[in-house]
TrEMBL record:
This is Response regulator transcription factor. SMART domains: HTH_LUXR (SM00421), REC (SM00448). GO terms for biological process: phosphorelay signal transduction system; regulation of DNA-templated transcription. SUPFAM superfamilies: C-terminal effector domain of the bipartite response regulators, CheY-like. It comes from the Bacteria. The modification 4-aspartylphosphate is found at residue 52. PROSITE patterns: HTH_LUXR_2 (PS50043), RESPONSE_REGULATORY (PS50110). GO terms for molecular function: DNA binding. CDD domains: LuxR_C_like (cd06170), REC_NarL-like (cd17535).
Length: 214
């Protein structure tokens, strides 16, 4: 799988590139700003671009803006945005702009090789990835009448994994439950939250996040 890495911090960029290479990915370009990223993808489109959300010149949302531009110009290239902070509004903006091949992950997750490589592969395959910390913050938001209160502890666990973009099979593996048990929990979550159950993983992530955003 071919990957482009974009981060203005040289040590982080080189370290991330090395980790991905050792994990079996082909890092075809390493760049330090958003324009260089756009140029690299235009010249030789990769399967996935791993992008820092803050890059020169203003160090605000250049990476996010580039990700949104790539969703339009190169929809077959997945984009995984890395951030040092939990910023749900940016994560939701990224996911809403592109219903496939997009992800938002905290930089601290990079130290977990399995988590990182799984996220890159899922995004490259057209899936959606949301960092668990973002999901936790959204789940924790309170409303006057919060239907989340009706969920059991296990249903909350299932909901959190669904919102991260994980399939029923992945939920089974994470929670060590049978497929039928997970299907029952998923039905319960959708029923209690008043959401339409959809077999498409990306659509159900969007539905769940729209509800959590309130």
């Amino acid at each position: 799988m071919r990957v482009v890495v974009a981060d203005d911090a040289v040590l982080f960029r080189e370290g991330l590139s090395r980790v991905l290479t050792e994990a079996g990915f082909d890092v075809v370009a390493r760049v330090g700003d958003a324009q260089a990223l756009l140029d690299a993808v235009r010249d030789d489109p990769p399967d996935c671009a791993v992008v820092d959300i803050r890059m020169p010149p203003t160090h605000t949302t250049e990476g996010l803006d580039a990700a949104r531009a790539l969703a339009t110009s190169h929809p077959s290239t997945g984009v995984l945005v890395l951030s040092a902070h939990v910023e749900p509004h940016y994560a939701l903006q990224l996911i809403e702009d592109g219903a496939r091949g997009a992800g938002y992950l905290l930089k601290e997750r990079v130290s977990d090789l399995d988590e990182l490589t799984e996220a890159v592969r899922r995004v490259a395959a057209g899936g959606l990835v949301i960092d668990p910390s973002v999901v936790a913050e959204l789940v924790g938001r309170r409303r006057a009448r919060n239907p989340l209160d009706d969920l059991t502890h296990r249903e909350r666990d299932v909901l959190a994994l669904m919102a991260e973009g994980r399939s029923n099979q992945a939920v089974c593996e994470r929670l060590h439950l049978s497929p039928k048990t997970v299907e029952a929990y998923v039905r319960g979550v959708f029923t209690k939250l008043g959401l339409h159950q959809d077999a498409d993983d990306n659509r159900r992530v969007l539905a769940v996040l729209a509800h959590l955003r309130g």
